[in-house]
Input
Amino acid sequence: MQYTYKYQSPLGGITLASDGYSLTGLWFDGQKYFAATLSAGHQERKLTIFEQTKEWLDSYFKGNPPCVALPIHLDDTPFRLAVWNLLREIPYGEVVTYKDLAKEIARQRGLPSMSMQAIGGAVGHNPISIIIPCHRVIGSDGSLTGYAGGIDKKKSLLKIERAKGF
Output
């Protein structure tokens, strides 16, 4: 069974999802791929993981780097999981490029190169926005590209983190 909780952020509504123990989804309401991993039979319910996530988000939106690691459960292809694990390593307030991620995945897999479009697809399908910081990925030219929640939200998140240049 999957459960949901509605959170109101300064940037708009957010829907959280859980398997009852771990966080399995976090989407800005109406974003691209909204609730893509959520089953039709989910129920809205108060859970400990939602309270923990609410506290994490409250701190984050106040401009404080969250220091608590939330229990997260991801289920997808090995490729997407590898990309999402790289996203989790991007430090608060810093950015990397799709090219950087492509080079690292290629290195990990012993390949000469990796498609930046494939990386972009995996980043775009990240089911746990903000906490798995896909907003910290930018174009090689420094442009803000490809955020499922919208470029305006990506820019706002980077401003909250006081990322250089934003």
